[in-house]
Please model this.
Amino acid sequence: MSSLEVLLSSDRIQARIRELGAQIDSDYPQGPVYLVGILKGACFFLSDLARAMNTPARLEFVGISSYGKGKSTSGEVRLTKDLDVSVEGQDVIVVEDIVDSGVTLSYLMQVFQQRRPKSLRIATLLDKPERRQRPVHVDYVGFKIPDEFVVGFGLDYAEDYRNLKDICILAAASASSENRGATEPVAAAQGGSPD
Model:
């Protein structure tokens, strides 16, 4: 059995999202800005971020896979769902739930740069800089967090816990569960998303 420990409360998350929305409004006062969410984990953050902005926002989604059949990243990234519109000449902010290895975002930023947007930035709710394997510049960071496996507010473990309003550390409740692989999320180091 696993236990949950609140790392970031819903109130704290919402306050920070309002600050990020104001920062984006300052950087892009005219709009529109394309907010491109990485499925599935970023949907909660993307929705709240769009509502926190005064700048007109257009929402798009992409799907990315970097896992293969296991729980740890394969290092091979592929696009599973592409944009529905062209972003050429547009201001684009890629919205991610959590950035750790940088593998997925490094790949995605290369893909988007080839599409010639006017500007291209990254917003993430959570950042784990100690996990970085590839350099990625994140323009809008909600929170830097320790290297713990987290769930909630869109982040999952085996598709569970996404709907928690808080962001929580998922910990194994007993040593016997460690033997059954309950600590695998730490090895995957994702907290719900391929990056």
Summary: The mean pLDDT is 84. The domain at 10-145 is CATH 3.40.50.2020 (Rossmann fold). The chain is about 25% helix and 30% strand. The helical segments are 10-27, 43-52, 103-113, 175-179, 184-188.
